[in-house]
Design brief:
By secondary structure, the protein is mainly α. It is about 50% helix and about 10% strand. It has a single domain (about 10-140), classed as Glycogen Phosphorylase B (Rossmann fold, 3-Layer(aba) Sandwich). It has helices at about 25-30, 50-55, 65-70, 85-95, 100-115, 120-130, 140; strands spanning about 10-15, 15, 35-40, 60-65, 80. The protein has a 3-stranded parallel beta sheet with strand order 3-4-5, with helices on both faces. Strands 1-2 form a two-stranded antiparallel ribbon.
Length: about 140
């Protein structure tokens, strides 16, 4: 299978610097046409680009770090990998197996809709914070 790899921004892929072709459109426009999202980060806070990629139906092949595990929520939505070799194999497998890739893409999109929309995240913040933002009402002061 012939595939074009386009990387956005500067990146180190498991310690190896790669010259990158800079895409001149927005990342989301690009993500809509991608089959696989790749990240070899060794640390992330909350990986918003990973969630955005999953929302567009792009299957993630990402380094096995806490932030990526948190986004995956233990679901079968992509691959967490420990090495460049494993990453290469998983990317190749996804490009060669459209049925499997589309199944993972559907799972990822479903997970984003269930857990990671702005509304869902805001709802969880409200649950966590509760009334602590406004613990005393005007009536309580009287």
């Amino acid at each position: 299978m012939l595939a074009e790899i386009v990387l956005i921004g500067d990146s180190y892929l498991f310690g190896l610097f790669h010259y990158l072709k800079l895409l001149l459109s927005t990342p989301n426009m690009f993500a809509n046409s991608c089959a696989v999202y790749v990240s070899s980060s060794i640390f992330e806070g909350f990986d918003i680009p990973l969630v955005e990629a999953m929302a567009t139906g792009t299957v993630p092949v990402v380094s096995d770090i806490e932030a990526h595990r948190f986004v995956f929520q233990g679901d079968n939505v992509g691959y967490l990998v420990a090495s460049a070799e494993e990453m290469t194999i998983k990317i190749s497998d996804l490009l060669d197996n459209e049925t499997g890739r589309l199944r993972l893409a559907t799972n990822g999109r479903r997970l984003v809709e269930q857990k990671w929309t702005r509304a869902k995240v805001a709802e969880r913040y409200r649950e966590l914070i509760g009334d602590s933002l406004y613990p005393i009402t005007l009536a309580d002061d009287l």
